[in-house]
Amino acid sequence: EVYFKNLSKQKQKEVMEKNGNNHKLRVCVATCNRADYSKLAPIMFGIKAEPQFFELDVVVLGSHLIDDYGNTYRMIEQDDFDIHTRLHTIVRGEDEAAMVESVGLALVKLPDVLNRLKPDIMIVHGDRFDALALATSAALMNIRILHIEGGEVSGTIDDSIRHAITKLAHYHVCCTRSAEQHLIAMCEDHDRILLAGCPSYDKLLSAKKKDYMSIICMWLGEDVKTRDYIVALQHPVTTDIKHSIKMFELTLDALISFNKRTLVLFPNVDAGSKEMVRVMRKKGIEHHPNFRAVKHVPFDQFIQLVAHAGCMIGNSSCGVREVGAFGTPVINLGTRQTGRETGENVLHVRDADTQDKILHALQLQFGKQYPCSKIYGDGNAVPRILKFLKSIDLKEPLQKKFCFPPVKDNISQDIDHILETQSALAVDLGGTNLRVAIVSMKGEIVKKYTQLNPKTYEDRLELILKMCIEAASEAVNVNCRILGVGISTGGRVNPREGIVLHSTKLIQEWSSVDLRTPISDALHLPVWVDNDGNCAALAERKFGHGKGIENFVTLITGTGIGGGIIHQHELIHGSSFCAAELGHIVVSLDGPECLCGSQGCIEAYASGIALQREAKKLHDEDLLLVEGMSMKDDEIVSAAHLIQAAKLGNTKADSILRTAGTALGLGVVNILHTMNPSLVILSGVLANHYVNAVKDVINQQALSSVRSVDVVVSNLADPALLGAASLVLDYTTRRIY
């Protein structure tokens, strides 16, 4: 488009003068099969409509003239084009040798035709072996070549043929910006490249408005409704014929199992097509009540069929190109179209060992409606191409110029990424247990392993590696792709280096420990490490109440008291990685001694250890047990006994719990006055016992401006593991962390 904006009327006038005012551009369009004719026909109609500028000669060869492939030359005659020459160039056999012999036969016959026609320019489409013969003949006879759809990337031998034609061609009409960049990277002269879009889109974008029910009924039966049938079109892959035939068998098995009315088109003339037809007949497709098998459907009718289908399946370029114009779901099978740009309507099944993957893809895609894609055109390709043809100066030398620009990459949706759940290995190092879990992107714990946490560093690290290796192996069996390892541990952690700086007294021999290096070396995966309180906050941010909240605080109430702070959606670590040690906020100068060595910390009042200490004191004084409670002689007194006693009316136990709740509440008030979060999340086994007390203290002690804060109990079953997993999942999915 930019090219033609820069092309002045004066330039066009000069070109006409150079070529001779009365000279019409003699254009030879050569078509080999039904697929390339669908792209060439709009250009042919455009050329025919401007007889003052062009003379059109049509040459037909290849599978157009074979009965087994529908004698599709007839649709060219029905479109009222005069066919100047018919060349029988296909050597039957449908194997690799037959393809080579067909190219040779075409090379033998074409020179005589071109000598008689003497075209100024030949239009060649695509990447078929017949087109290679056309381009070779024209190039050797010094006839200018205009190549349609060069620069694209797909699979199999087609890529090599397409790029070979590009090197033979003098002018290029491409369909996408990436194809244009590929042509430039292949040293083609930018001035001879036109980004026009796909000519077939000129028809496609207006086709859906036409009457279609009669066409659907004609090809699929009177009882078929729109969006309730499938169109299947699969060709052999010449570089791996056996595998493509196996894939075709699996496709037919999946379609039979899926049990929907299906229109199956016969494959093209490539090597392997005969074997594919045998597979169809072996499975009785031509006589199956759910299937309609046909050699050819006129393009106008084919457009209507795919536009209103519930799904298209196969490996035809039509599926990844034209069908996107309608938003019809497409399942692209195998490698034949690998590398082509696709819309979001295309789901790739690169490989399949059984019909299950294809069947799963059908279940995912069938009946969906995607946004219409205009990757390959906007409906104005033909006017651009005609302008481009008019601008060609026949007196210019044919020699090419060269340049070397970069090439853009292409990314597309893949069935393996959908079926294979992106997951993390999560490790939780607690005071008692060591746990490893496979956690999915949605926060589902797929599999969990638990062992007692060893007392020594060597045994602990050995067990971590053993459990992680076991979990990583199991991930393959449960169809999970492990993105990395996240570790949640008590103590002060340097997350940048993956080092535990100082541990709590609950985990022995756990200071100055490099966790990242040995685990990453053993598993060949990235490893993230952080404090358990921070991990709990990350779990809430990704999976819990904190999702979407800009500023919130998480408090863990368990064996100890910990937490994490999220400020402006990001976790706060502090200058020495000591932020959010919320359990050590001092709420009383002469309170009980804390494990940290200080007095009056929240943890000294409200942790599980603190409650256990108070419960033991009551038990030693015979003040713990009340009616309805009993303990075995060897049973260890715990915080749970204190809570049970309070519920059964033990006033001393109740007083201890109220004091603990008040201490926790005062700590929360200090947090509110310091950080001013909009949400406080209480997590851990004691959260439900403290939530009301915390709310009461906030209402009594906090400034009025912060009393509106929400205080909730976490609904996450396993915040430590989920937080460890979020270390991996947030980072590997490009969240800034």
UniProtKB/TrEMBL annotation:
Q: Where does an N-acyl-D-mannosamine bind?
A: 492, 504, 532, 581, 584, 603
Its GO biological process terms?
UDP-N-acetylglucosamine metabolic process
A GO MF term: UDP-N-acetylglucosamine 2-epimerase activity
Q: Which domain of life is it from?
A: Eukaryota
- Keyword terms, alphabetized: Allosteric enzyme, ATP-binding, Cytoplasm, Hydrolase, Kinase, Metal-binding, Multifunctional enzyme, Nucleotide-binding, Phosphoprotein, Transferase, Zinc
The pathway noted for it is: Amino-sugar metabolism; N-acetylneuraminate biosynthesis
Catalysed conversion reaction = an N-acyl-D-mannosamine + ATP = an N-acyl-D-mannosamine 6-phosphate + ADP + H(+); UDP-N-acetyl-alpha-D-glucosamine + H2O = aldehydo-N-acetyl-D-mannosamine + UDP + H(+)
| Pfam families membership | Epimerase_2, ROK
Q: What is its EC number?
A: 2.7.1.60, 3.2.1.183
Q: Where in the cell is it found?
A: Cytoplasm, Cytosol
Q: Where is the UDP-N-acetylglucosamine 2-epimerase domain?
A: 53-390
Predominant place of localization: cytoplasm
Q: Where along the chain is Zn(2+) bound? A: 584, 594, 596, 601
- Catalytic positions are 532
Query: Where does it sit, as one GO cellular component term?
Result: cytosol
User: Which family does the record assign?
Assistant: In the C-terminal section; belongs to the ROK (NagC/XylR) family. In the N-terminal section; belongs to the UDP-N-acetylglucosamine 2-epimerase family.
**What interactions and quaternary structure are annotated?**
Homodimer. Homotetramer. Homohexamer. The hexameric form exhibits both enzyme activities, whereas the dimeric form only catalyzes the phosphorylation of N-acyl-D-mannosamine.
For this entry, the protein name equals Bifunctional UDP-N-acetylglucosamine 2-epimerase/N-acetylmannosamine kinase
Which organism is this entry from?
Apaloderma vittatum
**Organism ancestry:** Eukaryota, Metazoa, Chordata, Craniata, Vertebrata
